[in-house]
Amino acid sequence: ATEIGSASPISSRRRPRTVPCSRPLTRVTNACWRCRRARHHCPMVLVPLLATASSVTMMHQRLGELTWPEVDGRTVVLAVPVGSCEQHGPHLPLDTDTRIAVALADALSQRSHDPASGLPAVLVAPAVAVSASGEHAGFPGTLSIGTEVTERLLVELVRSADWAAGVVLVNGHGGNAAAVTRAVEQSRHDGRSVLSWWPRVPGGDAHAGRTETSLLLHLAPASIRLDRAVAGRTEPVRELIDELRAHGTRHVSPAGVLGDPTDATADEGARIAAQLTDDLCHCVLEWATATGGDR
């Protein structure tokens, strides 16, 4: 079987499919990414040569923007951003987790187009934008489908992507941990190759605090109402978890903030985003090259 991210070998008994080659070529390889033949001898190449190799790192590919002939499941991994629609204090948008998950999945796809990265080619799926957010019930705007439905949704989504070499669930919402973990277990039981990943920021706060506010100041500054930012409970989550589970976030923090966003900066957000991107890419590369692709 072809390893995740490797080129599908051309069998002498099976002709390659003659669908248009959708991935741009670079002067580094000067070859078709499907059949590895020289560009000028490949009948599938219908796209121009990019001017420089560095321009490859400035792109990402989203599944929803492609046509079906441009999707080759033998050579791509599908990254699925898993976010939420839930309150993030009076200053951050309801889709904060989704924005972060999409940005990190895009960064992974962008880096995968650099031949030096060693990553398999990555396509970014449309985001799962509503998930398990029951802990934020009571705040207007929050939507939730619960843990069981989120788990089932992810299992069926992974099953439907059987044309891909593997699936990476890029989870931006901590409340999805149980659903994602169980979905991965079921998907692997089904024989699917799947990886789950979510951001871990040492020393970061829990919700709508300095960490997420800094990230949004970097990723989407126009979306923030910084003049409305207020500090909430700043204890570590492990000290609040029982109260959160018993009574929900609004009981613990009426503003919906667990942390202090008032000293957040875009520079810190850029550093966090770079660290998270490096960690995501490292985990995907490790998983993709491991035997069986499991992690």
Task: Briefly say what this structure is.
By secondary structure, the protein is an alpha/beta fold. 32% of the residues lie in helices and 7% in strands.
What is the succession of H and E elements? Answer: EHEHEHEHHHH
Spatial strand sequence of the major β-sheet: 2-1-3-4
Estimate the strand proportion.
Answer: 5-15%
Largest sheet: 4 strands, parallel
Helical percentage = 25-40%
How far apart the termini lie comes to 18 Å
Global Rg: 21 Å
Shape: globular
Mean pLDDT value: 82
* Poorly predicted segments: 1-58, 291-295
Number of helical stretches of at least 4 residues: 7
Report the count of strand segments: 4
Descriptive notes:
- It is a single chain.
- This protein is α/β, with parallel strands linked by helices.
- The chain has seven helices and four strands, in the order βαβαβαβαααα.
- The radius of gyration is 21 Å and the shape is globular.
- It starts with 75 loop residues before the first strand and ends in a 6-residue tail after the last helix.
- The model is unreliable at 1-58 and 291-295 (pLDDT under 50).
